[in-house]
Write the structure tokens for this entry.
Amino acid sequence: MTEKNEGRHGKKMRMTGTVVSDKMDKTIVVEVQRLYMHPVFKKTVKAKKTYLVHDEKEQAKPGDVVRVVSSRPLSRKKRWILEGIETAR
């Protein structure tokens, strides 16, 4: 391994999203939006998905734009770790 972020299967995935909830202990809910072209109708479609993200220091608040990075499974649904906060509303 050459970098700390690289594992056996390559680089880790990174995404940017908005914090929706921080009511759980050391866990936040992040909503990630993406745009894609519909294959038949050729219209731009907005899709969004929520992810459970580990926030060790509990520093992210609802409305913050955050960067998350993939990790090993931390619980049944939690597979992402908070990398940093980009901006706050």
